[in-house]
Amino acid sequence: MLHALYARVMDLAQRPQARFWLGAVSFAESSIFPIPPDAMLVPMALARPDQAWKLATICTVASVLGGVVGYALGFFLFELVAQPVLTAYGYADALIRFEDWFQRWGAAVILIKGLTPIPFKIVTIAAGAAKMDFATFLLTSLVTRAARFFLLAGLIRRFGPAVRDFIERRLVLVTSTAAALVILGFLALRYV
Question: pLDDT at position 59, please?
Fold first, then answer.
């Protein structure tokens, strides 16, 4: 089923309404949908590198707005809606770990996890369930999602089709490196 859904998302990237679908996938992925928007962003940006920044903006804005829905699901409807969604995707145990991490490290969890391939819906729902400060959640979501999508768009603009294969084979390395840079930036701000 997941492969069929992925193929459908790739098909949507080729359609005339692709920007709308890119926004819809980005929005839904932040709260309930299993396929990340990268699956559409990459082929769309490769097809139109001059539009990469606009496409990254669509992903960022829609993802943050979808994250607000995920936060609300965790905050207001955890047992009724959020927990069954996470259980259906096999993420119930991950939520418990995230709630503990939120209590310990707060905003840093969103900044780090929002860049990695870990589904952003877990982060948003867990932030709501943990009753994280909403303004902090919103700001960190904006920073981390923008960093992820603009990094991807920048790589595509700079390296073109060659980067697609590299990203698809080494997505964890690319996003983990970006997360490490964010952590180093925070450490530098804190201790310098």
Answer: 96
